[in-house]
Amino acid sequence: KKDGDARGDGFVVVEFSRKAHDDYMKRMQEWASEKADAANIDVHTWSETQSLSAEQLYYLNKVKCQDAKCEKPEDEARIRKNVEEGWGWERLNRLVADFRRPAEKHAAEKGSASLL
Question: Stretch 16-44: mean pLDDT, rounded?
Fold first, then answer.
């Protein structure tokens, strides 16, 4: 997060470092804890009741492509039109969330719940 950056903590940045990994894991753990607390159960129990991993659920809940902005209004209008006339925001969000998972987890989960 940079000072003055309105995107804040919710902005997902592709960064391959131990610090980025640790930061995202902390966010995911906090998010999962909030979900478990809301269900009045412990995190382990909450995680066991989910059909997808906590990491995948986190990204599915946090990635909102429709909230993205472009510097040029004409680019934003064109992209929005293409998405809305094509796959739609929900599918695009799922594709981006799926992309964020590490390859080995994707392969392990591929045979279970399908995202698309």
Answer: 86
- Cα separation, 34 vs 42, in Å, equals 10
* Cα–Cα distance measured from residue 67 to residue 46, given in angstroms and rounded to the nearest whole number: 29
The number of angstroms, rounded, from the C-alpha of 43 to the middle of its chain's C-alpha atoms is 19
The helix-helix angle for 103-110 and 54-62 (nearest 10°) equals 100
Give the CA dihedral 28, 68, 100, 109, nearest 10 degrees.
90
Residue type for 79, please? I
Q: Quote the CA–CA distance of 70 and 78 in Å, as a whole number.
A: 10
Residue 47, CB-side half-sphere exposure with 13 Å CA sphere = 14
pLDDT tens column, 43-66: 888 888 887 777 778 888 888 999
Give the pLDDT confidence score for residue 39 in this predicted structure. 92
Give phi and psi for 12, each to the nearest 5.
Answer: -90, 120
